[in-house]
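ESCALATION

Customer reports they have been waiting on this structure for their group meeting. Please prioritize. Original submission:
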Amino acid sequence: MLLQILYWIFLLCVSPILLASTILTATVTIVLSTMGLGRWAGYFFPHYWAKLFCILTLVKVTVRGRENIDEGTSYVFVCNHQGAYDIFSVYGYLNHQFRWMMKKALEKIPLVGYSCKVSGHIMVDNSSPSATRTTMERAERQLSGGMSLVVFPEGARSWDGKMRRFKRGAYMLAVEFGLPVVPITIDGSFDVMPRFKKMPHWGHIVLTIHKPIEPVAGTHDLAQVMDESFNAIHGALPLRQQ
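Update from on-call: job pushed to the front of the queue and completed.
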Protein backbone atom coordinates (compact mmCIF):
# COMPACT_ATOMS: atom_id res chain seq x y z
CA MET A 1 0.00 0.00 0.00
CA LEU A 2 2.86 2.36 0.85
CA LEU A 3 4.44 1.74 -2.55
CA GLN A 4 1.13 2.53 -4.25
CA ILE A 5 0.78 5.81 -2.38
CA LEU A 6 4.37 6.78 -3.24
CA TYR A 7 3.67 5.94 -6.87
CA TRP A 8 0.56 8.16 -6.92
CA ILE A 9 2.61 11.01 -5.45
CA PHE A 10 5.25 10.41 -8.11
CA LEU A 11 2.60 10.53 -10.85
CA LEU A 12 1.32 13.86 -9.54
CA CYS A 13 4.86 15.22 -9.75
CA VAL A 14 5.45 14.10 -13.33
CA SER A 15 1.94 14.83 -14.66
CA PRO A 16 2.78 18.47 -15.59
CA ILE A 17 5.69 17.17 -17.69
CA LEU A 18 3.46 14.64 -19.43
CA LEU A 19 0.77 17.23 -20.13
CA ALA A 20 3.29 19.75 -21.46
CA SER A 21 4.95 17.12 -23.66
CA THR A 22 1.55 16.12 -25.09
CA ILE A 23 0.66 19.70 -25.98
CA LEU A 24 4.13 20.38 -27.41
CA THR A 25 4.18 17.15 -29.47
CA ALA A 26 0.74 17.80 -30.95
CA THR A 27 1.52 21.45 -31.71
CA VAL A 28 4.88 20.76 -33.38
CA THR A 29 3.33 17.93 -35.40
CA ILE A 30 0.55 20.22 -36.63
CA VAL A 31 2.94 23.01 -37.58
CA LEU A 32 5.35 20.76 -39.45
CA SER A 33 2.53 18.88 -41.14
CA THR A 34 1.11 22.12 -42.55
CA MET A 35 4.62 22.77 -43.93
CA GLY A 36 4.53 19.47 -45.83
CA LEU A 37 6.60 17.47 -43.32
CA GLY A 38 3.75 15.43 -41.87
CA ARG A 39 5.06 12.08 -43.11
CA TRP A 40 8.14 12.49 -40.92
CA ALA A 41 6.72 14.58 -38.08
CA GLY A 42 3.66 12.36 -37.63
CA TYR A 43 5.89 9.58 -36.36
CA PHE A 44 9.16 11.09 -35.11
CA PHE A 45 7.80 13.34 -32.34
CA PRO A 46 4.98 11.03 -31.12
CA HIS A 47 7.54 8.18 -31.02
CA TYR A 48 9.62 9.96 -28.39
CA TRP A 49 6.53 11.34 -26.62
CA ALA A 50 5.26 7.78 -26.14
CA LYS A 51 8.65 6.61 -24.85
CA LEU A 52 8.68 9.49 -22.37
CA PHE A 53 5.21 8.49 -21.15
CA CYS A 54 6.38 4.94 -20.45
CA ILE A 55 9.62 6.00 -18.78
CA LEU A 56 8.05 8.65 -16.52
CA THR A 57 5.25 6.32 -15.40
CA LEU A 58 7.75 3.51 -14.70
CA VAL A 59 6.52 1.16 -17.39
CA LYS A 60 9.19 -1.03 -18.98
CA VAL A 61 8.64 -2.25 -22.55
CA THR A 62 10.42 -5.25 -24.05
CA VAL A 63 10.21 -6.10 -27.76
CA ARG A 64 10.69 -9.61 -29.10
CA GLY A 65 10.85 -10.68 -32.75
CA ARG A 66 12.05 -7.42 -34.24
CA GLU A 67 14.09 -9.49 -36.71
CA ASN A 68 10.81 -10.56 -38.35
CA ILE A 69 10.22 -7.18 -39.99
CA ASP A 70 12.16 -5.05 -42.45
CA GLU A 71 12.51 -1.28 -42.13
CA GLY A 72 11.81 -0.60 -45.80
CA THR A 73 8.70 -2.78 -46.14
CA SER A 74 5.11 -1.63 -45.66
CA TYR A 75 3.02 -3.85 -43.38
CA VAL A 76 -0.37 -3.97 -41.75
CA PHE A 77 0.36 -4.62 -38.07
CA VAL A 78 -2.57 -6.13 -36.15
CA CYS A 79 -2.48 -6.09 -32.35
CA ASN A 80 -4.65 -7.22 -29.48
CA HIS A 81 -5.99 -4.30 -27.43
CA GLN A 82 -5.51 -4.74 -23.68
CA GLY A 83 -5.42 -1.14 -22.49
CA ALA A 84 -4.42 2.49 -22.96
CA TYR A 85 -0.69 1.70 -22.87
CA ASP A 86 -0.97 -0.33 -26.07
CA ILE A 87 -0.67 3.00 -27.89
CA PHE A 88 2.37 4.17 -25.93
CA SER A 89 4.19 0.83 -26.19
CA VAL A 90 3.64 0.43 -29.95
CA TYR A 91 4.33 4.09 -30.76
CA GLY A 92 7.42 4.18 -28.59
CA TYR A 93 9.02 0.80 -29.18
CA LEU A 94 7.95 -0.76 -32.49
CA ASN A 95 10.59 1.40 -34.22
CA HIS A 96 8.91 1.28 -37.61
CA GLN A 97 7.28 4.14 -39.52
CA PHE A 98 3.52 3.71 -39.37
CA ARG A 99 0.15 5.37 -39.18
CA TRP A 100 -2.77 4.38 -36.99
CA MET A 101 -6.09 3.26 -38.40
CA MET A 102 -8.61 5.05 -36.18
CA LYS A 103 -12.24 6.05 -35.96
CA LYS A 104 -13.03 9.38 -37.59
CA ALA A 105 -14.73 10.48 -34.35
CA LEU A 106 -11.30 10.67 -32.69
CA GLU A 107 -10.61 13.80 -34.73
CA LYS A 108 -12.64 15.59 -32.07
CA ILE A 109 -10.02 15.07 -29.36
CA PRO A 110 -8.69 18.57 -28.67
CA LEU A 111 -5.38 19.28 -30.41
CA VAL A 112 -4.28 15.62 -30.49
CA GLY A 113 -7.10 14.60 -32.85
CA TYR A 114 -6.29 17.36 -35.29
CA SER A 115 -2.58 16.56 -35.20
CA CYS A 116 -3.41 12.95 -36.13
CA LYS A 117 -5.59 14.11 -39.01
CA VAL A 118 -3.12 16.56 -40.58
CA SER A 119 -0.14 14.20 -40.20
CA GLY A 120 -1.83 11.46 -42.24
CA HIS A 121 -3.28 8.92 -39.85
CA ILE A 122 -6.07 6.90 -41.47
CA MET A 123 -9.39 8.28 -40.24
CA VAL A 124 -11.98 5.64 -41.09
CA ASP A 125 -15.23 7.05 -42.46
CA ASN A 126 -17.80 4.40 -43.36
CA SER A 127 -20.76 6.76 -43.45
CA SER A 128 -21.30 6.11 -47.17
CA PRO A 129 -19.73 4.11 -50.03
CA SER A 130 -18.08 7.26 -51.38
CA ALA A 131 -16.62 8.10 -47.96
CA THR A 132 -15.25 4.56 -47.66
CA ARG A 133 -13.63 4.85 -51.08
CA THR A 134 -12.07 8.19 -50.12
CA THR A 135 -10.63 6.56 -46.99
CA MET A 136 -9.10 3.79 -49.11
CA GLU A 137 -7.58 6.28 -51.54
CA ARG A 138 -5.96 8.27 -48.74
CA ALA A 139 -4.61 5.06 -47.24
CA GLU A 140 -3.11 4.00 -50.56
CA ARG A 141 -1.21 7.29 -50.78
CA GLN A 142 0.20 6.77 -47.29
CA LEU A 143 1.11 3.08 -47.40
CA SER A 144 4.24 3.16 -49.52
CA GLY A 145 7.99 3.46 -49.10
CA GLY A 146 8.09 1.57 -45.82
CA MET A 147 5.11 3.36 -44.27
CA SER A 148 2.95 0.83 -42.44
CA LEU A 149 -0.39 0.71 -40.67
CA VAL A 150 -1.24 -0.34 -37.10
CA VAL A 151 -4.76 -1.44 -36.26
CA PHE A 152 -6.57 -3.07 -33.33
CA PRO A 153 -8.92 -5.61 -34.96
CA GLU A 154 -10.94 -6.01 -31.75
CA GLY A 155 -12.11 -2.43 -32.24
CA ALA A 156 -11.94 -1.46 -28.55
CA ARG A 157 -10.00 -2.24 -25.38
CA SER A 158 -10.65 -5.49 -23.57
CA TRP A 159 -12.76 -5.44 -20.39
CA ASP A 160 -11.01 -8.45 -18.80
CA GLY A 161 -7.65 -8.71 -20.57
CA LYS A 162 -8.81 -11.53 -22.81
CA MET A 163 -9.04 -11.24 -26.58
CA ARG A 164 -12.31 -10.67 -28.34
CA ARG A 165 -13.36 -11.59 -31.85
CA PHE A 166 -11.52 -9.74 -34.62
CA LYS A 167 -13.47 -7.53 -37.01
CA ARG A 168 -13.17 -7.88 -40.78
CA GLY A 169 -12.78 -4.16 -41.49
CA ALA A 170 -9.34 -4.05 -39.93
CA TYR A 171 -8.02 -6.30 -42.70
CA MET A 172 -9.56 -4.63 -45.72
CA LEU A 173 -6.51 -2.50 -46.52
CA ALA A 174 -4.22 -5.53 -46.35
CA VAL A 175 -6.53 -7.36 -48.76
CA GLU A 176 -7.02 -4.33 -51.03
CA PHE A 177 -3.32 -3.53 -51.40
CA GLY A 178 -1.79 -7.00 -50.94
CA LEU A 179 0.34 -5.99 -47.93
CA PRO A 180 1.92 -8.49 -45.52
CA VAL A 181 0.03 -8.76 -42.22
CA VAL A 182 2.17 -8.84 -39.07
CA PRO A 183 0.50 -10.00 -35.84
CA ILE A 184 1.75 -8.34 -32.63
CA THR A 185 0.96 -9.73 -29.20
CA ILE A 186 0.74 -7.11 -26.45
CA ASP A 187 1.13 -8.64 -22.99
CA GLY A 188 1.07 -6.64 -19.75
CA SER A 189 -0.82 -3.54 -20.82
CA PHE A 190 -3.98 -4.72 -19.06
CA ASP A 191 -2.11 -4.82 -15.74
CA VAL A 192 -0.65 -1.35 -16.31
CA MET A 193 -3.88 0.46 -17.18
CA PRO A 194 -7.04 -1.52 -17.98
CA ARG A 195 -10.10 0.07 -19.53
CA PHE A 196 -11.83 0.71 -16.19
CA LYS A 197 -8.88 2.51 -14.53
CA LYS A 198 -8.10 6.23 -14.74
CA MET A 199 -4.49 6.03 -13.55
CA PRO A 200 -1.66 3.69 -14.59
CA HIS A 201 0.30 1.26 -12.44
CA TRP A 202 4.00 0.58 -12.88
CA GLY A 203 4.69 -2.60 -14.78
CA HIS A 204 6.22 -4.44 -17.72
CA ILE A 205 4.77 -4.74 -21.23
CA VAL A 206 6.06 -7.25 -23.77
CA LEU A 207 5.52 -6.78 -27.50
CA THR A 208 5.97 -9.96 -29.54
CA ILE A 209 6.31 -9.32 -33.27
CA HIS A 210 5.34 -12.45 -35.18
CA LYS A 211 6.43 -13.42 -38.67
CA PRO A 212 4.56 -11.68 -41.51
CA ILE A 213 1.64 -13.42 -43.16
CA GLU A 214 2.46 -12.85 -46.81
CA PRO A 215 -0.18 -12.43 -49.50
CA VAL A 216 -0.49 -15.27 -52.01
CA ALA A 217 -0.50 -14.20 -55.67
CA GLY A 218 -0.76 -10.58 -54.54
CA THR A 219 -3.77 -10.96 -52.28
CA HIS A 220 -5.05 -12.50 -49.03
CA ASP A 221 -7.83 -14.91 -48.26
CA LEU A 222 -9.69 -12.74 -45.74
CA ALA A 223 -10.93 -15.53 -43.47
CA GLN A 224 -7.57 -17.27 -43.49
CA VAL A 225 -5.48 -14.20 -42.62
CA MET A 226 -7.92 -13.29 -39.84
CA ASP A 227 -7.64 -16.78 -38.33
CA GLU A 228 -3.85 -16.97 -38.69
CA SER A 229 -3.24 -13.59 -37.09
CA PHE A 230 -5.72 -14.23 -34.25
CA ASN A 231 -4.11 -17.58 -33.45
CA ALA A 232 -0.58 -16.14 -33.52
CA ILE A 233 -1.48 -13.31 -31.15
CA HIS A 234 -3.62 -15.48 -28.87
CA GLY A 235 -1.02 -18.24 -28.65
CA ALA A 236 1.67 -15.91 -27.28
CA LEU A 237 -0.48 -14.67 -24.38
CA PRO A 238 -0.21 -16.21 -20.89
CA LEU A 239 -2.86 -18.81 -20.08
CA ARG A 240 -4.79 -16.44 -17.78
CA GLN A 241 -5.51 -14.18 -20.74
CA GLN A 242 -6.42 -16.85 -23.29
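Sent to customer with the following note: The beta strands are 59-64, 76-79, 98-103, 122-124, 148-151, 181-187, 203-209.
Escalation resolved.
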